[in-house]
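User: Please work through this fold.
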Amino acid sequence: MKKRKSWLFWTIPIFFLCYGVVESAPPKKQWHTSVYEIEIRYHYTSQCNPGTCEGEKILTLQANVRNVIFGHSPSPSFPCWFHSRSGGITVPHFGHGEGVAEIVAVEMCPHLSGGGVEPNKIVSRNNNFDINLTILSNEMAEEYQREKYGEDKLVPTPLVEVVWMQFQAMTPFANPAYEWENSDGNGLVHTFNVFFNVALFKLKKNQDIKINVPEADECGKGEWSIWLRPKLKNNLGDFLY
């Protein structure tokens, strides 16, 4: 019985102390941006070399992500979330899939077979992409950077808070974006993927943001160009770029 009284004696003061702290903490500020349109372009060129570099000679992908609204996150693990408008209010959600993508140009390098050099013939094309734009949690962003730079290397620390995002454009595996074949077999591509980050304060200020993400392999070079364009309203309430 004495133990029970002691537990009550210490619990009650702690309860009121915690209650006071919660009540005095300022509420988290809610915010959201204007509607953004995001234009994404990927261009790759290769130094073709039959036998070693036999992939894409030229590749251009164009995508547009529509009606993107950024805003406060309901979770402290994320710097922000996407928002959608419903009945005059904005509702947070995790991913955004509204938009289109298409392969503007693709040309393959030649293939070295047992009979000599021959073309890699493109036998099918498909621009019926599903697109997805997601915001990475702080933990996911750290894991991606460690994988990119290496576990034994120092990950650069940004001077301001940033929002890491991942863009994906995907077709079904059975109906790839493009497929090629030669006398030795075939190949196909159905997924395009890029990670990038933007400064959080620029989003909160509805700023126009342009980003370039270079890529390179042993055969060639590519670059992602990403343009976040806010829609601005005129005096009549119409959206303008």
